[in-house]
Amino acid sequence: MGKDKKASGSGSKGGKDAGKDAGGKDSGKAAKGAQSINVRHILCEKHGKKEEALAKIRDGADFGAVAREYSEDKARTGGSLGWKQKGTLDPEFERVAFALEASSTGKPIIGEAKTPFGYHIIMVEGKK
After folding, report:
1. Segment 92-114, tens digit of pLDDT
2. What's this model's pTM, rounded to 2 decimal places?
3. DSSP structure class, residue 49
4. Positions of the region Disordered (predicted)?
C-alpha cells in the first residue's frame, strides 16, 4: 500500500458500566474499545493471488512467511504495518482490522477487505 491507509484499535472488554467509576458516574474515560492496533496484512492486486495466500494460511502456514511470499506491499517485514491509530487507515480496512481479535502469526485470526489498493488479508497482533 503506497499510502498509509490501514486500521487501528477496537475490542474493549467491559459491560454497560465500562468507563464509569464505583459510584456509577462517568469516569471521563470513553468505553470505545481499542484506539490503536498492531496490524499485519497481505496485499494482493489480483483476487486469485489473495485466494492462494488464504489457502496457505488456512493450511497452517505462518502469516509472516505467506506475507513475504505473496504480499505486494511490506513483504520484507512479513506484512507488518506496526501500530496504527484509529482513523488513519482506509475505512474498509480499518472496519475489518479493528473488529479482529489479537492473534499470533503462527495461529492468525484473519479478516479480509477490498480497498482501492487491492485485496487484503489482515491480522492483528495487539490492541491498546
Report:
1. 999 999 999 999 999 999 999 99
2. 0.74
3. H
4. 1-33
